[in-house]
Amino acid sequence: MEKERVTAVYLIETPYTLERAAEVIAGEQSTGTFTAVPGETDQLKERHGARIEQIVELSPVSSPTLPGSKTPPGHDGLYRRGEVTISFPLHNFGPSIPNLMSAIAGNLFELQELSGLRLVDLELPEAFAARYPGPKFGIAGTRQLTGVYDRPIMGTIVKPSIGLPMADLQQMIMDVSAAGLDFIKDDELNANGSYAPLAQRVSAVMDAVNRAADATGKKIMYAFNITGDIDEMERGHELVVKAGGNCVMVSIMSVGLTGLAHLSKYSEVPIHGHRNQWGMMTRCPLLGFAFPAYQKLCRLAGADHLHVNGLDSKFYESNSSVVSSIRACLKPMYGGYGTMPVVSSAQWAGTAPATYEATGTVDVMHLAGGGILAHPGGAAAGFASMKQGWEAAVAGIPLAEYASRHPELQQAIAKYGKG
Amino acid sequence: MEKERVTAVYLIETPYTLERAAEVIAGEQSTGTFTAVPGETDQLKERHGARIEQIVELSPVSSPTLPGSKTPPGHDGLYRRGEVTISFPLHNFGPSIPNLMSAIAGNLFELQELSGLRLVDLELPEAFAARYPGPKFGIAGTRQLTGVYDRPIMGTIVKPSIGLPMADLQQMIMDVSAAGLDFIKDDELNANGSYAPLAQRVSAVMDAVNRAADATGKKIMYAFNITGDIDEMERGHELVVKAGGNCVMVSIMSVGLTGLAHLSKYSEVPIHGHRNQWGMMTRCPLLGFAFPAYQKLCRLAGADHLHVNGLDSKFYESNSSVVSSIRACLKPMYGGYGTMPVVSSAQWAGTAPATYEATGTVDVMHLAGGGILAHPGGAAAGFASMKQGWEAAVAGIPLAEYASRHPELQQAIAKYGKG
Description:
homodimer; alpha/beta; Alpha-Beta Plaits; eight-stranded parallel barrel; 17 helices; 13 strands
């Protein structure tokens, strides 16, 4: 019986007691109106009601994080914080990602009894695994396709992100393939714009990929950004597969979890999941979702690779948050669902040691734009420096020491290092 | 040339100057890396770069709204606020809602140079109208289907929201149909759960709807919640249409704008757009989206009805925000795209006058759960009181005065009125 419930953990803030706030959250799932209506029997509540499983009190604050909360009579001025665990009967909504979202998130963010609500964890019963088979390739499949087993899969992003003439794009692919890179992806800004329609890009890119593979003996993995409307994505995927492509990318928040799950039904190559727009769901610390909860839904919906930002990135996110995202992606789900975390943004050889130290894994994709392409010795030297950074990290050798015997790493430190 | 750009207006907060922050926002759209890369020519920037169109300074604050911003050297402790208008060349992404989102939202919420960013308005060129035909029924079509022309379309929500036995649901439909209501909808929590699969609900509901129509001569509009995975929604829509149903509902944030646009391609009945989960995109005043911007995308994607919350609701949202949402939905787009705002949450006859006074329109759906169903005189009296509330509002007669001649309104005031 217990496994037939979904469990959600919320970080909440409330001018009421935590108990009262938890009751409102649970109640919003069974009646949803401001006045009692006929037919709401105890039996119905027992069968369909959400249940408060646990309340852990945290330190209160003296002002509300979010606007619009109301205060109870005689309010002492404190806004209580706590972690509240609520469970929901699965039969209310079934193993359906979109309907799960209406239940566990729904109107909760708008309640007046709360001045903050954030979904921080989520446990889903096996029924979800029966409906959503998860990543088709995942970590193992991606390693097999790239032939890289003992280190991170390393790659870069097409730069400039938009506007690169096809001939220049082809040259870039030839160059990074010659440099030995495992992977290259379109920028999230570059999908199917009229200046460079996907069909044209697929043809030009695959021509370069194949020519480079003939020369090097290794076919680089190219993630084509096929983000688009539902039918457009299907056509995009078909274009890529027919041309011999080996990866597609989508902006998950653009196509929705339903769009991703739909793509996953017919996809024949790994799906590279980009999470742009994610900031609006997570940057306010008392609102939205934490990534360890959200990534489970992305994995269910079929993301083989999943962006997690990077350590010391150009974005606001703390390193500890990035580390917990990487760890979350690598935590097994249903005995499978292996999604490869994609570490990117302001990355270079020097971000490898801290990433490895904090996560203890080489099961990541490590992407660098400028950190490879703008290396003083060129892309091949940039790639070499990235490998050297990870070699040092895994061997536990200080970067500077390792660099004394590896000139590409030395050059990278000179260019990108801060100290 | 100007019409081939998309214009986005952002409310921003930054420890830098507004000019610098605007440059970073615009720049994030053309290079997206932390170090200059080859190939980024002036010509490319001119052709593909985002452009700062206007900066309007607002009052600064002394502490950052969102965490994780970095401060410039010699920071004076102020976080500047302003409205920044940025335009993007359409050819970068084409008239595609999902790729538009990656461009106008993308990684912007995560920039360290900002301590707040919210998309408050959006202007889209005609090319979007050519690709997305918008609502098929809208206000006019919904009025035609319900036969209600001179007042709001009034309805209720199935309550209890989940767990109601089929026989009780049928009885409820018979009752509210006999009471004369125009419209009834599933709760957003009730879609296709195993305790009440959609197929079973469609059959039971339509049986009751048709029996009631035989008795009253008026077929109530029933919005079936078909929220689900992409294929599941298609099957759900087919079930509803084949059974003679006249409306489907989806939780837009659950199915995504792409899911909504896909449904809109084949829908044969109005699409009732529910916006649950919206709070996580909007409750932090310096993050996410404002509804007047977001509703344009929902209309493009085909929502015939669109939830906007209600005045004096049980939620955190201010009345002025609700009013601006209603007005935004009613503002013409591309000479059409008429979406009917759906006013709900803690609604009753007494919320009509303020709603009418602030918006000057009867082109809304006005939904009440308890406000109709829990009326002391029953559902028919609840419905009568709602109509009376709007009659008083449109005639400019104070509610109490009008109630002196209308007992149902009098009873409603006695039960739900605060003063």
